[in-house]
Amino acid sequence: MTPSALLVHVPDVQAGLDWYRKAFPQAKPVYIEVFDFTVLDMNGLSLEVVQADEKVSAGAKGTVLYWSVPCLQTALDHFLGLGAELYRGPINIENGLSMCQLLDPFGNLIGLRGKRVE
User: Fold this and answer.
1) According to the lineage, what is the superkingdom (predicted)?
2) What's the whole-model pTM score?
3) Spacing of C-alpha 102 from chain mean position
4) Considering only CA atoms, which of 117, 116, 111 is closest in space to residue 7?
């Protein structure tokens, strides 16, 4: 598995995006029109500044590293078998992929992204 995206939860997406563009000037902004969403591409790693909400607040608890997996269901079954709990999703996203978040036994979030082969 390799990391595919890092989500940073903030109370104001535009202010957060502006700050991260300054913090990482080498990142290339990529606008995804269908979602009205801008990501920062960092040599293949997607830095995504997203709205904090009741599930994931801003701050240290709001950062989730997503791992690219060939089959989301296989990876999900693997983590669930190790005692992780499904926290959010799976939801469909761009390019035929789906994503979900798992809560590990220690209270940390693990993000998975991949094709939803059933």
Assistant:
1) Bacteria
2) 0.73
3) 11
4) 111
Which CATH architecture best describes the domain 2-115?
Roll (3.10)
Which amino acid, 57? S
Q: Please name which of 112, 92, 113 lies closest in space to residue 104, comparing C-alpha atoms.
A: 112
User: Distance between CA 24 and CA 111 in Å, rounded?
Assistant: 22
CA angle 45, 8, 67 (to 5 degrees): 45
**C-alpha–C-alpha distance, residues 112 and 69, integer Å:** 7
Laid out side by side, the sheet with 85-92 consists of 28-32, 37-42, 45-51, 2-10, 63-71, 109-115, 97-103, 85-92
